Prior knowledge:
The chain is of the alpha/beta class. The chain has helices at about 25-35, 65-75, 90-100, 110-120, 135-145, 150-165, 180-195; strands at about 15-20, 40, 45, 60, 75-85, 85-90, 105-110, 125-130, 170-175. The strands form two sheets. It has a five-stranded parallel β-sheet with strand order 2-7-1-8-9, with helices on both faces. Strands 4-3-6-5 form a four-stranded mixed β-sheet. The radius of gyration is 17 Å and the shape is globular.
Amino acid sequence: MKDRLTESVANPLFIVLSGPSGVGKDAVLDRMKKKRHTIYYAVTATTRPKRQGEREGVEYHFVSKAGFERMIEKNELLEWANVYGNLYGVPKLEVQQALDRGQDVMVKVDVQGAASIKRIAPQAVFIFLAPPSMDELRERLRRRKTESSVDLELRMKAAREEMNSLPMFDYVVVNYSDGLDQAVSQIEAIIVAEKCRVKPRRVEFK
Length: 206
């Protein structure tokens, strides 16, 4: 019996995973990749410095600011945003090529990026990954040790504002502490439910 998550379909899904910084988006994607679903995971381009353990072309495409600005000028990005002084954007070509192959695509973006994609691809599946509480989110950011105290407060302020964007999304998944597998299972269930729609989503970029 074919896995409903890996089955080739005429109308592939474009899945947008978003949520506040520190909520666990990377961990969710890593766990899904290890389960070897044939979803195509689009890699975001960024100008921010590479963190310890990150790999070029895996977590991100790390590019210079000048290189990123050239991508903007050539309209090579599906969306882009300035987040805490760093530029992030989703390369359009790799997403379109995967969809043209009939392959489901998942992309991880911040809430600002999700809003941009919503304007040009409203038929995408929008999933908001939420923390169990704002206190828990603060603790996760603190443990990450990648932000100064000032940056942490900026991220917490942004997170509170981003939580107000929930109505823009189709689904919300809470990523509880020690609940990564549960969050992944819920995302898998969302994908299966979308595959069972009587009227499939048809993604076309405006």
